[in-house]
């Protein structure tokens, strides 16, 4: 297949592009390489896939010097004109839209970035898919959409009308817009609610990266809600396996669709992709200490605005529909991250 992956300088997009390239798909990666976190890490990910930093220019396609079936373009999702030109030229079979302004706490400081990237950008992707004969769209949502929900594990059947961050609200909006396009235009769309993704090449703004960095540098780590937190940590390889299965098995469009599809037949689906086994934050820190062979200095702090105390994925739909359940043990995943971190930063 010919697949567009947005966000390929990012954590999940980088890994997904590599997985699809290596199995033989033709992939075009897209990213605007913004400076939300260290751009050197983003360029390093691109370089790992054979994209030369020196050749990257805005709205110019760069060929990989490592994989003949991979190309990259630097482009803003808000740039509708050039995004449409890309779709018209390349004629994608499928799109996996992972690019977004990430981060819960940053949305308190810079809300406009979330509207521009996550709302306008997502809308532009939907329109480009609609007008260019793309067979299916998969896109990143987030476990943060569950917000103030008390019932756990979180199920995709649950009401998610009480987000506690603008980031979460934009991801819920993406799901609603996608359902509208599935309903009106018979476009198969699948939302992916990721649960606390971690692993090699991870994001510097996330807990594992920050904890490992500070512990190795003998600095204290910030532990929120005084450590009374649980997260459904999900290893990157498990996430990628789930995403690939979704790409390969989109919801079926209705053959006799006439523009009046009912809710039951609109080709729309949302999946949780999580480990299904929440880990106490203090146990997570202890596992990091064991791998590093070094104790953390803990700075215990109250809960931050926009955060939640616990996440836990119900993955029964993923298991039933796609025959898959994430399985990587958190200690194995932490060790793999630390091995990568030491090698990448030459520690």
Automatic annotation (TrEMBL):
The keyword NAD applies. Pfam families: Epimerase. Its EC number is 5.1.3.6. It is an enzyme of class 5 (isomerase). Signal peptide: none annotated. Residues 3-253 form the NAD-dependent epimerase/dehydratase domain. One of its GO terms (molecular function) is UDP-glucuronate 4-epimerase activity. InterPro entries: Epimerase_deHydtase (IPR001509), NAD(P)-bd_dom_sf (IPR036291). PANTHER family: EPIMERASE-RELATED. This is UDP-glucuronate 4-epimerase. It comes from Lebetimonas natsushimae.
């Amino acid at each position: 297949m010919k697949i567009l992956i947005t966000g390929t300088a990012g954590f999940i997009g980088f890994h997904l592009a590599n997985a699809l390239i290596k199995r033989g798909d033709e992939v075009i990666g897209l990213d605007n390489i913004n400076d939300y976190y260290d751009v050197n890490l983003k360029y390093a990910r691109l370089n790992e896939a054979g994209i030369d930093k020196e050749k990257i220019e805005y709205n110019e396609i760069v060929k990989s010097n490592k994989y003949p079936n991979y190309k990259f373009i630097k482009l803003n999702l808000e740039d509708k004109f050039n995004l449409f030109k890309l779709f018209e030229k390349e004629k994608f079979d499928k799109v996996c839209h992972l690019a977004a302004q990430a981060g819960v706490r940053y949305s308190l400081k810079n809300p406009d970035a979330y509207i521009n990237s996550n709302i306008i950008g997502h809308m532009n992707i939907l329109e480009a898919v609609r007008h260019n004969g793309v067979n299916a769209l998969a896109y990143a949502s987030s476990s943060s959409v569950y917000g103030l929900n008390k019932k756990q594990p979180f199920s995709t059947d649950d009401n998610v009308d009480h987000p506690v961050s603008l980031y979460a609200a934009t991801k819920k909006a993406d799901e609603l817009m996608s359902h509208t396009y599935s309903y009106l235009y018979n476009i198969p769309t699948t939302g992916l609610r990721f649960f606390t993704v971690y692993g090699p090449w991870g994001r510097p703004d996330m807990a594992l990266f920050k904890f490992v960095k500070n512990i190795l540098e003998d600095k204290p780590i910030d532990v929120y809600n005084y450590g009374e937190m649980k997260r459904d940590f999900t290893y990157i390889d498990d996430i990628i396996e789930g995403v690939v299965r979704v790409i390969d098995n989109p919801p079926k469009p209705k053959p006799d669709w006439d523009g009046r599809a009912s809710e039951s037949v609109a080709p729309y689906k949302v999946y949780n992709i999580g480990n299904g086994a929440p880990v106490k934050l203090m146990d997570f820190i202890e596992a990091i200490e064991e791998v590093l062979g070094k104790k953390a200095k803990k700075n215990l702090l109250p809960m931050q605005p926009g955060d939640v105390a616990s996440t836990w994925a119900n993955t029964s739909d993923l298991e039933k529909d796609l025959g898959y359940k994430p399985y990587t043990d958190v200690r194995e995943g932490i060790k793999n991250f630390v091995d990568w971190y030491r090698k990448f930063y030459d520690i």
